[in-house]
Design brief:
The chain is of the alpha+beta class. It has seven helices and five strands, in the order αβαααββββααα. The longest helix is centred in the first third of the chain and has 30 residues, at 16-45. Mean pLDDT is 78; it is low at 1-39.
């Protein structure tokens, strides 16, 4: 809710007037790029409120994802994505035993710059396996709406432009407040170190 590097080319000019012209031209291009970035960030933030559970098909998609994640339905999860890499499959396969179930799922969305696309900041509480402990969490997802009205998740790693958009949106006040809220909830819920150790021991045992 994830950017650009500028390449600098070095050229040799024996004529100082050409060097001066090149530097001025480079500064102008850099200035224009800076203005373009600022305009893009303005587009992302202006008239683009953080909306809670607004898009029902998108909500169903995200809830379905967490339901399948806790039940270990990896094939079902793959179908929720436009495409799904082997690397992502292995990551989810490794972490699927972490939570027994998820509850209190809320989807906060902001429109992406790309038409019919959304950045979703998903807050939830998960019941850890092997311990009587409910921990809050926050996950960022990028979602596209298809022409037929269906929604699909976009696999990570995201394209650089998408990563940049997410980082811009994550700086917005409402998103920062959401993140702070979840962090405070986590700090409070994770005070039970014994339960955390129990969940960790269970997880390590299940991996063997």
């Amino acid at each position: 809710m994830s950017e650009s590097t500028s390449a600098v080319s070095h050229e040799f000019y024996p004529d100082y007037r050409r060097i001066l012209f090149t530097n001025e031209k480079s500064q102008k291009i850099t200035s224009e790029k800076s203005k373009s970035v600022q305009t893009s960030e303005h587009y992302l933030l202006e008239n683009n409120p953080l909306e809670k559970n607004k898009y029902q098909p998108l909500n169903y998609l995200v809830v379905d994802y967490f339901t399948k994640l806790s039940s270990g339905d990896l094939d079902g999860i793959c179908k929720l994505y436009e495409s799904f890499s082997e690397e992502s499959f292995e990551k989810i396969k490794t972490g699927q035993n972490l939570a027994e179930w998820y509850q209190g799922i809320d989807i906060y969305t902001k429109k992406a710059k790309e038409p019919h696309a959304y950045v979703a900041f998903v807050s939830y509480h998960m019941k850890l396996r092997g311990a009587d402990l409910l921990l809050p969490g926050l996950e960022t997802m990028y979602v596209r709406e298809e022409k037929d009205g269906t929604f699909h998740l976009v696999d990570k790693p995201y394209e650089p432009e998408v990563e940049r958009e997410i980082r811009v949106l994550a700086k917005e006040r409402a998103v920062r407040e959401l993140l702070c809220q979840v962090e405070n909830q986590y700090a409070y819920a994770s005070r039970d170190k014994e339960a955390l150790q129990s969940a960790l021991a269970w997880q390590q045992g299940s991996d063997k």
